[in-house]
Automatic annotation (TrEMBL):
Keyword Zinc appears in the UniProt entry: no
Domain of life assignment: Bacteria
Pfam families named in the record: Pectinesterase
Naturally occurring in which organism (per UniProt): Granulicella cerasi
Domain Pectinesterase catalytic: 30-312
Signal peptide limits: 1-19
Protein name in the entry: Pectinesterase family protein
This protein's UniProt keywords: Aspartyl esterase, Hydrolase, Signal
Similarity remark: Belongs to the pectinesterase family.
Amino acid sequence: MLWRHMFSALCLASTAVFAQDVHVHVAQNAKVDATHFPTIQMALDHAADVGPQGKLFLHIAPGVYKERVWVSPRRARTVLLGEGKSASDVVISAGMNAAHSGGTFFTETVEVNADDFAADNITFENTAGPTGQALAIAVSADRAIFKRCRFLGDQDTLFADYGRQYYVDSYIEGGVDFIFGNATAVFDRDEIHILRPGYLTAQSRTNAEQPTGYVIKDSRVTAGDLQGKRFFLGRPWRAYARVVVMRTELPVSLDPRGWSEWKQNAAELAKVSFAEFENKGPGAATQGRASWTRSLSPKEAAGYEPKVFLAGADHWDAPVEAAKLP
């Protein structure tokens, strides 16, 4: 019997180690030790490893962190927590653009390649301005959550590239194609702000069987001074692009057509899935929408709620997981 008790104790101890969370603190004036670091990247590089079920929490003090950050695949279950009163108090900032870095996908201020990543109360910023492609963040991660965050840039601000992603109570700003890629992503209760005449989204689904696409729901689209010109909700970066905008406030400066073709896919617009449901505001009227877009029925719209659209085979409930963040 004794060996059974010893075996049970060892198993419990092993489970505790595997499930152990690690908490570290980032502040620009921090003196480096095992749990305190002056930069975010240093914390990611040198914090203790967590077990298969544990999480790494980075508690980030207010400040502008002028660095480029990579969350590697080995840092799964990393959580960035901004400790300011609002997302504007903790800013990760860089200013690379495609012309000077060697291409679009070398410009991101933050790159996330780790599954089960989360960020709360943080700003991700690319300060390059209207100088071409310049990413604030690139996210290639499954079950990623961004809560109360800000994403600031101009062209290609947010590369929602791969995996299931949930953006809630956040602010996203840009000028051209500033939410783009082929993730399965929901933007819930967000403000999406367009700075100049352009396109909110450039989704890139490549075949009809892919479960990918973007859903903008219960949100608000706002526009800067477009000098009398119009903007579009999106254009298809790839032939089977899918974007749904539902129960969202749309401004008067939205082009009545709503959506634009992309020259390279202009002959394949029947494959595109651009749709709307119960939007509101002065730009919500659908009578003048592009003929190759459509309105959803209530039954169809129900399939784009985050609990359904993001569920996957593991039945991930993104809103429930987001509610667990501080």
